[in-house]
Specification:
Layout: H1 2-11, H2 17-45, E1 60-63, E2 66-69, H3 74-97, H4 113-125, H5 144-157
Antiparallel strand pairs: 1-2
Length: about 160
């Protein structure tokens, strides 16, 4: 995601180290949020999702001589989702801390920070349970109207 933001900044003619730095943090946060959001899909397709810190959270089980990730313990799954979301949130905070040094013309390019924050807020609302059915409603767990208003609000204020 960071690479796409860098390319968009470059194509827009924006040459700013601060904008690149913010894009890096937003890209990392967005990538982590999308990995978290895709977890239910990956869990339903296979039980070998290598991006999950399974050993650390006690989710790795040995079945028939092969290691698998067990999604049976909702509490453990929520714990590692919380850990990944915390890292993503830290990147979002770093990107927003750079906002005053980022050129104003770069702010629209960095608007992908808004959907990332929506995902993180939605996860927080459901106590980081990625299997909660409320996350599948609307756009990223919020009503489509609220999502569009949020995007427009940040855009009009020149924030990301």
């Amino acid at each position: 995601m960071s690479t796409i933001l860098y390319s968009t900044l470059e194509a827009s003619g924006i040459k700013s180290t601060a904008a690149d730095h913010a894009a890096s943090h937003i890209g990392k946060a967005s990538g982590l949020a999308l990995l978290i959001k895709s977890l239910p899909y990956h869990a339903s397709r296979n039980r070998h999702s290598s991006y999950i810190p399974a050993e650390k959270h006690g989710l790795l089980v040995n079945q028939s001589g092969q290691s698998e990730i067990s999604m049976d313990s909702r509490e453990e799954v929520c714990n590692f989702v919380f850990e990944m979301a915390s890292v993503a949130n830290a990147h979002m905070q770093k990107a927003r801390a750079l906002a005053k040094t980022v050129p104003r013309e770069a702010h629209p390019v960095l608007l992908p920070a808004v959907p990332t924050q929506v995902i993180l807020d939605s996860l927080s609302r459901v106590q980081f349970d990625v299997f909660d059915p409320r996350l599948a409603q609307g756009v990223l767990g919020v009503s489509p109207l609220w999502y569009q208003l949020k995007l427009k609000w940040f855009s009009l204020r020149g924030k990301y």
